[in-house]
Design goal:
Length: 508
């Protein structure tokens, strides 16, 4: 009786505690100390193992730093690693299950039963005896092995699907790398133009402000016609507005580049002196059919759709596997501490065949749904193929046009530089007004900016075409390679970016 009372008290206490716990859960917002600690930790993690920029930054090193240290790229690599781990876990789904259990059973009263003698066709009105054959308190343990044919079949196809998802993660990483390299090229040339133009823009703004002050002084003294002075100031103000817009446009270039290469924000980055010249255009002479075939073989988006189609077909097979009867086998070692048992430990085996009869009704619908998924995946692949071919033609045309625009911008810049030099010489000889000097200096600055922008557009168009063709640097592990080694590999690739295409290689 005492033990029964203890069991009742324990059960009642556990129930009260559970109900009390359910009623006291309240939202717990982050404290300021927790936020500060987390922010400090995250900031430390973001900059950990990042080599400082010691000298002028080249385009090759900027791309290497982005591939090695960029935070978004690190996320992509972790996603790919997670897919690999999920594949390893999926491989265990087809294995048998080995389960170990242990328990303890307690009763406040014995499990007693009445018994009577059995007599055919006769109703017994009273029980003969009462007895019990188990202890009130006893422990149990068992170790069981279970294997299901249905679970093994579904796990097999699920593992194959997860293997395709690993390949999809790799294609997404390739696509993210192309986008990252394109962004680095754009930000690098913006930063280069900002570095080149900063002093010229500031000097020209100072000259324009000085000329504007002189003009207002002349206007106040009424030495010249007020209308002429106002027109003169109006032109100076237009030039100032143009110069200030250029300065504002270039102001964020360093921040964008620093974010891409994971450099400290606010720390100035010196851009290396780089030749403003076009790369070779041998790939533009290739037949467009050759480019289409290469893109259809290697484009990351299209390859991803191929893998999705394979996943959809494996889903049909997995659906069919679920409709078959399930064969379940189990084998276990049992133990029970009950002293009334003759054998306290024994082995137990079983074989069970089961079938869900409703599968007969739902099989057509399930099959139809899975086949519809295959058709949808195939349609997406066809649409992606047409999109890849369209993007290829557009990227090729954009590269041709960008190269023409750069050559034109280069010619305009050379002409504006010569004009600005002549006007500056005449202004020094007091044969030309400050307005003309400021206007021509502004035009020369704008021409140089457009020259950099045109070269950046050439790089962007090249990178877009490279991404569409599925070309990328042949690199080792960015984690294993040192920054210097990675920079050298990217430099070699940038000198011959079209080598796999020109050599007839099928896969970069």
């Amino acid at each position: 009786m005492r033990q029964g009372k203890l069991i009742q008290i324990f059960t009642l206490s556990a129930t009260v505690m559970a109900l009390a716990g359910c009623g006291t859960i309240t939202p717990s917002p982050l404290t300021q100390d927790e936020l500060n600690q987390t922010n400090r930790t995250d900031k430390s993690m973001a900059s950990s193992a990042v080599e400082p920029i010691d000298g002028p930054l080249t385009l090759d090193e900027a791309m290497a730093r982005a591939l090695k240290y960029n935070l978004d790229r690190r996320t992509r690599l972790m996603e790919e690693a997670l897919s690999m781990n999920q594949l390893e876990m999926a491989e265990f789904d087809a294995l048998p299950k080995l389960v170990a259990q242990a328990g303890y059973t307690a009763r406040d009263k014995e499990r007693a039963t009445y018994s009577s003698q059995y007599t055919p066709n006769q109703v017994v009105s009273s029980f003969q005896t009462s007895s019990y054959s188990s202890e009130r308190n006893h422990g149990t343990a068992d170790l069981g092995l279970t294997w299901s044919l249905l679970d093994a079949s579904v796990g097999y196809y699920g593992g194959k699907q997860q293997a395709e998802r690993v390949l999809i993660a790799a294609e997404k990483r390739r696509k993210a790398m192309h986008v990252l390299m394109q962004d680095v090229r754009t930000a690098y040339w913006r930063a280069a133009s900002a570095q080149q133009l900063r002093s010229q823009v500031q000097q020209t703004i100072a000259n324009a402000e000085s000329a504007l002050a002189d003009s207002r002084k002349v206007e106040a003294e009424r030495v010249r016609n007020p209308m002429d002075a106002l027109r003169y100031q109006r032109q100076l103000l237009e030039n100032l507005r143009l110069l200030e817009s250029i300065e504002q446009e270039l102001a964020s270039a360093q921040v964008d580049l620093a974010a891409l290469v994971n450099a400290p924000l606010g720390q100035p980055i010196t851009i290396a002196e780089t030749s403003l010249a076009l790369s070779e255009d041998s790939m533009l002479t290739l037949p467009i059919q050759r480019l289409e075939d290469f893109a259809l073989e290697n484009n990351a988006d299209l390859r991803e759709q191929h893998y999705n189609s394979r996943i959809a077909r494996q889903e049909v097979q997995k659906t069919m596997a679920r409709m078959f009867p399930n064969l379940n086998f189990n084998y276990g070692f049992k133990y029970d501490a009950d002293q009334y048992l003759v054998h306290n430990n024994w082995n137990e085996a079983g074989l069970q065949l089961s079938f869900n009869l409703f599968n007969i009704l739902t099989a057509p619908t399930q099959t139809k749904l899975a086949e519809a998924g295959v058709k949808l995946a195939d349609q997406r692949r066809v649409a992606s193929q047409m999109a890849v071919i369209t993007q290829l033609h557009l990227a090729r045309l954009q590269l041709i046009n960008a190269r023409k625009q750069f050559l034109r911008a280069d010619s305009v810049y050379e002409t504006d530089v010569r004009i600005a030099s002549l006007v500056r010489s005449r202004a020094n000889a007091q044969a030309q007004s400050k307005l003309d000097e400021v206007a021509n200096d502004t035009a020369a600055i704008l021409s140089l900016l457009r020259r950099y922008q045109a070269l950046a557009q050439v790089n962007v168009a090249e990178n877009r075409l490279i991404a569409n063709l599925g070309l990328e640097p042949r690199l080792g592990s960015t984690d294993a390679l040192k920054l210097k080694e990675l920079t050298q590999q990217i430099s070699m690739n940038n000198r011959q970016p079209w080598a796999p295409l020109l050599s007839g290689a099928e896969k970069p």
